[in-house]
Amino acid sequence: MQQVKSSLEQKIKQMQISLTGEPVLRLTGLSAATLPHMDYEVAGTPAQRKVWQDKIDQQGAVLKARGLLS
Fold first, then answer.
1. Is the pLDDT of residue 26 over 80?
2. For residue 67, what is the DSSP state?
3. Which of 29-33, 43-47, 65-69 bottoms out in mean pLDDT, i.e. has the lowest?
């Protein structure tokens, strides 16, 4: 069992995954560029990431206040 585990761990470390080249996405016609719910511009710059993070933090605070998030 240890040999199998070691072999799998080594293979995982050597793996490089890129969603742009994933065959399943390509075959289904889906890709990062064609998924309508993906908004890549929301955090395109450091300032946009800050605004986005502030918004998420505010939503988290509201959910915590309502007892819906711990």
1. no
2. T
3. 29-33
CA distance 51 to 39: 14
Asked if 42 contacts 48 with a C-beta cutoff of 8 angstroms, the reply is yes
Rounded-to-integer distance, Cα 27 and Cα 45, Å: 32
How many residues in the chain? 70
Query: Other CB atoms closer than 10 Å to residue 52's CB: what's the count?
Result: 14
> How many other CB atoms sit within 10 Å of the CB of residue 40?
9
Both structure tokens of 32:
């990062």
Query: Which residue has 């069992």 as its token pair?
Result: 1
DSSP-derived letter for residue 68 is S
Indicate the domain borders of the chain: 1-38, 40-70
**Contact in structure between 19 and 32 (CB atoms under 8 Å):** yes
